[in-house]
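Q: I'm writing up a methods section and want to include an example of the input and output format. Could you take the sequence below and give the corresponding predicted structure tokens, formatted cleanly so I can copy it straight into the document?
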Amino acid sequence: MYYNGNNGVGPLGFTMTLFQSLATSAGYDPVKGPGSSCLAADASGKCVLPWGGGTKAVSSIVLIGNGVSFAVMTLIFTSIGSAADYGTFGRWLLFVITCICWGAQYATIALTSPSRWPLAMALYMIGYISYGATLVFYAAAFPRLARNTARSREIQEKYAAGEVSQEEFEVEESMEKNRVSNISTTHSNIGYIVVLLLGLSVLLPLANNPLVNNYTLVLVNTYWVIVGVWWFVFQQPRPGPPLPKGENYLTIGWKQIWLALRQYKRLPYTFTYLLGFFLLADGLNTTGTLVAICQNDKFVFSFLENTYLGLAQAITSTIATLGYLYIQRHWKFSTKTMFIVTNVVTVMIPFWGMLGIWTDKIGFHNKWEFWAYNVVFGFFQAPYYAYSQTMMAELTPPGYDNMFFGLFGLSNRASSMIGPNVIQAIIDRSGSNWMGFPFLFAICAAASLVIWFGVDVKEGRKDANEWAKSAPVRH
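A: Here is the clean output for your methods example:
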């Protein structure tokens, strides 16, 4: 239910649309000069705002907001990520950052005029940072939960009694991790559908109300609060070991990350995956942001249109996540095989956008392309998120879940400081959103090749188990 409410519609979708909409309304057309409107019928399609003694494109400002957000997430994951493995710190950390995200979403009710776009940027960043952190620290619970389900305990007992081979044991344990990850992702997608339908209950009858977008955001956030709070009420206490004597929660994260990084030779496949995912997350996260910017421009920041597009994505995501799980369990495909399938198509998304440089007929210039994008995203990129988490769970040493998922979150978020900053510089220089796609296609393709050919999950799992037994970090 927590993941059902924590579906990203508010902090990822609507808040960014509201921020970009206010910034565009406050900006001016650089072709016509200050005082002109970016939304005029004869506007050039470019829009700038005063920024640091000069001007900057609204698209670039949105990407800067993303880049700074990822930088703050990096600080969070490095400073306190692995500390969540000790005692009950992780439990309270998730609760606090969830409350911060809820507060930022409720505060958007104050965004009532274009002049408040800086506040909209700040609230978007606070919501984005806290939302990203909730995903990482919630996902860190998956490996521990998967190791303790009834099916996992049964196969562990059979393996200990010599009734099943090590290979069969590892396959079944892997399937259980995939089941937990895919089912939770499915519930997130179901929540995605529910909140979008709830949004329509406000967007349609109040279509002419100037604050309809703000009301929709508050309603969507309230849904998360109502269904998400029960995780903190009913979550069973699963404390980690006590904090070592002489250590504190703010410094132990840096020490553990440094010690873990020094062990890369003993965990070659774990760190190769983290490197590959660093690049892949950078490319795909920035691609999603750039496509969203183009989509908001094409649909004139319409919450209603974005809701319909989101429904197309949510429905296909739910079908795909359950379908992939059925296919994997039926044919016993490995986690890596399923991950590769999701990669092949998602890497082609920035390639498609790249085509828009040379023609206006395709390449995210038409409304039908954004419909197609949301359907393709649902069928391929939603399962990508589930399988990327499971890949990390496969390669994580048991008992060090938060530490390595903190590194995973670091790969996911820290990498994304690069893409938005590179792309905003390209857009500022070229004046075209589409010029950012070639860089994104190159980085996604390179990352996929690193993971496909450089990560042996079976050997990586074996290395992780051996590493955990020697416990080099906690000595």
